[in-house]
Amino acid sequence: MLDWAWIVDHLDDLAARTIQHLALAAIAVGVGFLISFAMALWAVRRRSVYVPISAIAGILYTVPSLALFAALVPITGLSILTAEVPLVLYTLLIFIRNIVAGFDAIPADVLESADGMGYGRDRRLWQVELPLAVPLVVAGIRLASVSTIGLVTISGIIGDRFGGLGFFIFEGYRHSFPTEIFAGALPTILLAVAVDVSLVAVQDRLTPWAQPVTAAGRVRPA
Amino acid sequence: MNLVVATAAWLSDPANWQGRGSIPTRLLEHIALSGVSLALAIAIALPIGLWIGHTRRGATLAVNLANLGRALPSLAVIGLVLPITAALDPQNGFKLYPTVIAMVALAAPPILVNAYAGVAGVDPDFVESARGMGMTEAGILRRVEIPVALPVIAGGIRSGAVQIVATATLGAIFGGPGLGQFIVEAISQNDDGKLFGGVVLIAALSLATEVAFAAIQRAATSPGLRAPARAWQSRSVPDGSEGAQASS
């Protein structure tokens, strides 16, 4: 079923594409986080902008990735922007929702205490609200990272220069060669699961008080 | 501006609206493929989710598996299944089966988790009262737990449906049916009008799916539950799970 010799021969290529995969994902998560953070702070301070911001992010999120990558080709050509813009756009909804939810979860009496202690608006934001919002922000980073790792594969539709491990999936299809498709698919899944599991560990570290709750108890309905 | 003109020209060309590979055919293929996959995913995930929600047996395992399922990248799932199905059936095993399997595998987790969470989240007083009135366990599930949990259950089906429509698009990369074909063809033919036309159609279908299932979800909410349901919805969704796993 699989041609193991091909895999052994292409370990260097696989390693190079894995690095590209992680780099494309890291840029998108980083840029997406910065944009979302600014938008979320704006939404927290001015509640009226939250609904339009999350509606726009939600509509973008619903558009299938194959279409969004393809849509940018005539506009930004074959540059790295064509790969990164959709990846960044897909992180926005996840980040904005989680950051705003993180701020919303802060009990009102904590904020009142801070006000009563004479904290100004900015100092309260950075020293009280932000640290308390960290667990949900990290949960957002986890969801965004895992989702971006999956989406990087689809950027291979733009051309051979992109796609990370997804390159092998596209090339394998062109050559009708299942082994190559598999060699792109399996490491992508392992990468996504590894990032998910390690960020869960970070999340648990940051929220020791949530430990007694079982995994089942932490599930939130969609 | 040329892009808009080219897209409008492609979308309004009568030749693109009839025959094999036309817009209506591709749209129907896409909807049929998605419908069958959604039905399969519901048939598999819903009974398991309801059963776990009612009995609480195996909840941790099922929810962990489902959360792991949410982390799976769709294109990679198609690629993982492909060598197996291609070995079994060289024709459909390359073009169709891997996509359908991925669609079912990716839609099942949100359906299962929501069915479980919805039923498990029903006020225990309701269940106790029903039991005290002498209702059977099956009766409690059917007449108390499912109606109360229906909005949450429908929310899971909605996430699954959006995910499925997106994954069906990806199936075109492997020569599968559906609207994604326009994009794959347009890229190899360097046809911007067709490319953008395809993008418009796919985006429209995805948004229509989201809107339609959101309406179903609203309709599934019993009138007696509407006020608390609204309070439940306005509560922030801390892990961004509402629809947020639907990308692919």
Provide structural commentary.
The complex is a heterodimer of chains A (222) and B (248). Chain A has 222 residues and is mainly α. Chain A has nine helices and no strands. Chain A has helices spanning 4-9, 11-45, 50-62, 65-76, 80-104, 108-116, 121-154, 166-174, 178-206. With 248 residues, chain B is mainly α. In chain B, α2 (23-55) packs antiparallel against α8. The longest helix of chain B is centred in the middle third of the chain and has 35 residues, at 137-171. Chain B is elongated. Residues 229-248 of chain B have low confidence and may be disordered.
Which percent range describes the beta-strand content of chain A?
under 5%
The shape of chain B, in one word, is elongated
Which percent bin holds the helix content of chain B? over 70%
Helices and strands of chain A, in N-to-C order? HHHHHHHHH
Low-confidence stretches of chain A: 212-222
- Given as residue ranges, the uncertain stretches of chain B (5+ residues, pLDDT < 50) are 229-248
List the total number of helices of chain A: 9
Shape summary of chain A = elongated
Class of secondary structure makeup of chain B = mainly alpha
Largest interface: A-B, 65 and 72 residues
Query: What is the straight-line distance between the termini of chain B?
Result: 29 Å
Overall pLDDT of chain A: 88
Approximately how much helix is present in the residues of chain A?
A: over 70%
Distance between the termini of chain A: 38 Å
Quaternary structure state of the chains depicted: heterodimer
Counting DSSP E segments of at least 2 residues, the number of strands of chain B comes to: 0
